[in-house]
Design brief:
Elements: H1 2-23, H2 46-55, E1 59-63, H3 67-76, E2 80-83, H4 87-90, H5 102-115, E3 120-124, H6 134-146, E4 152-154, H7 160-171, E5 175-181, H8 187-190, H9 200-216, E6 220-224, H10 228-237, E7 242-245, E8 253-257, H11 258-261, H12 268-273, H13 284-301, H14 316-328, H15 332-351
Parallel strand pairs: 1-2, 1-8, 2-3, 3-4, 4-5, 5-6, 6-7, 7-8
Length: 352
Amino acid sequence: MAVFSNLLRHATVLRHRFTLRSMSNIPENTVYGGPKPQNTEQRVTLAHLKQKHKKGIPITMVTAYDYPSAVHLDTAGIDICLVGDSAAMVVHGYDTTLPITLDEMLVHCRAVARGANRPLLVGDLPFGTYESSSQQAVDSAVRILKEGGMDAIKLEGASPSRITAAKAIVEAGIAVIGHVGLTPQAISVLGGFRPQGRNISSAVKVVETALALQEAGCFAVVLECVPAPVAAAATSILGIPTIGIGAGPFCSGQVLVYHDLLGMLQHPHHAKVTPKFCKQYAHVGDVINKALVEYKDEVTSGSFPGPDHSPYKISASEVGGFLDELKQMGLDKAASAAAEAVEKMEKNKITS
């Protein structure tokens, strides 16, 4: 009897431990306290990225902003999903990235976090959320992780204050990606969306800033719109991965925006801001436009919805009772409409 009691008690303890484990949302092997339970065989972590970089295997990153796109990235096996402040332009229709707020970014972050289980999730710090002080930067980064469900943050800039902010965020226990070259948040200083590193001083500045961000503790650096030789120079001297976007083939990895690489948007506004370096791997926008026009035409002609897309039935006896009830309520017009609908549906079923 005592043996049986001990076995029962042991089984109860094991069952309790398993229940807690399976219901916990505390990561098992995560990046600085990220949002989800993680299986090291399935979830990308900094350790995975370091191994890829060490072996010379290119890192893939895609910028996405919502649940459906995050699911697609997850299915495709993309390494990093960046929730970029470019959502201001791609999703919200602004001409720059400046207007988007931290609260708006958090909505995008949460949606992506619900859809992407495999990639490392990185959230952009939007303009105005980290420039004032290191404390402001840390507070904003904490919100990206705690409220947005991200694993890491990305910040732009080459100024000493941005380097200081990056260091403070890392020291607060948050993983950081730096961003140099064309930094869209600085267009008022840069004079627009202009490539960087095209003269000696600018090229040297790109390399020096990348080194400074590495020294500050960043685990990777995005190089945007710089000549390939400049990116190659930075990549060769850094001990962390470089992720190129319009920076040639010599970076440790590449990033493109989901909508851009799919050829998703055909609106003139988007055509105006679509970067030259973007390769379109599909023309999804054309497919979407064709489908929408076809839908509009079918609704206008009355061919949609037909019998195949009107699946919910009511039996003949129930219809009869329904019509009687309508008539008793004095709703003869409604009864006639229902009876006519039944007749038409039966006719369509015969002819289809």
